[in-house]
Amino acid sequence: MSDTTEHLLLPKPNPDHEPPLFVAEEFLRLREAMDIIDQFLFDLSLLVSKKAADDHTHAIAGISGLVEALNEKMPANRQFKLDDLTDVEGATEAAINYVMVKAANGKFVPSTALAALGVHPHLISEITGLAAELASRPPRSEVAAALDLLVPKDGTLLTGGFRASSVELAGLDATVSPEAGNILYVSNTAARTIRAPTLPGVYTVIVEIVNGAGAGAVTLSGFSFVDGDTITTTQGHAFQIFITKTARKVVATVKAVQ
């Protein structure tokens, strides 16, 4: 048996002590142990008296350095944009429907979906309706042959022709333009002004005028030259105006056809 306790090593009686101790000697050892325990308990009570209660509280300002540390934190309601991330560039200025794609430099940048996919081939059979649509179109060879007939490029005689529909030149103040068609017509039921074409290029346009009830005077404006017959206001009279625009002049020739 040991002469001391296991943890604090306090002296204690030991009947197996060699040589054996007298009771008086053991009593002295017990007194020594009591003094050690007394000092230990006294020191422990002092430490406990300095501890805070379980339910104690502290103001933030009472915690050293806490206010400064909190001031360095971001607000809980702070919102971020993609461009705030270190590996994103240009997200804010990206166009509508762009996607973010990782570039070679490791950054995510805006890109169109098509550019992001890169080369993305498909078979004709994989495109819905494409094969049927292509089958309904004339072959390239037929289109080329037709164009060669209509528009010779080597000065040879044009052997084919074409048909067109007459388009109304609407409005009481209208400007002639081949964009609507090269053959135009006017139903004359009120005074009006027909202005020379201004669209760039060299071309000819025919305007047919047919006087109806209430036909008014027709003024030709902006032409370099106006020649031919006088446009009347008699109901039933008709006129054809042949307009030729060259590089420098715009000429109108009026022909009465009643």
Outline the structure in words:
This protein is α/β, with parallel strands linked by helices and 258 residues long. Helix content is 22%, strand content 21%. It has helices at 23-49, 66-71, 113-117, 130-136, 140-150; strands at 99-102, 108-111, 167-168, 173-175, 183-188, 192-195, 203-211, 218-221, 225-228, 238-245, 250-256. The strands form three sheets. A six-stranded mixed beta sheet has the order 3-5-7-10-11-9, with no helix packed on it. Strands 4-6-8 form a three-stranded parallel beta sheet, with no helix packed on it. The longest helix has 27 residues, at 23-49. It starts with 22 loop residues before the first helix and ends with a strand. The mean pLDDT is 89.
List keywords for this structure.
22% helix, 11 strands, 21% strand, alpha/beta, three-stranded parallel sheet, rod-shaped
Helix proportion range: 10-25%
Instruction: Note poorly predicted spans.
Output: none
Q: What fraction of residues sit in β-strands? A: 15-25%
Count the strands? 11
Distance between the termini: 149 Å
Quick take:
This protein is α/β, with parallel strands linked by helices and 258 residues long.
Helix-strand blueprint:
Blueprint lengths: L22 H27 L16 H6 L27 E4 L5 E4 L1 H5 L12 H7 L3 H11 L16 E2 L4 E3 L7 E6 L3 E4 L7 E9 L6 E4 L3 E4 L9 E8 L4 E7 L2
Parallel strand pairs: 3-5, 4-6, 5-7, 6-8, 9-11
Antiparallel strand pairs: 1-2, 7-10, 10-11
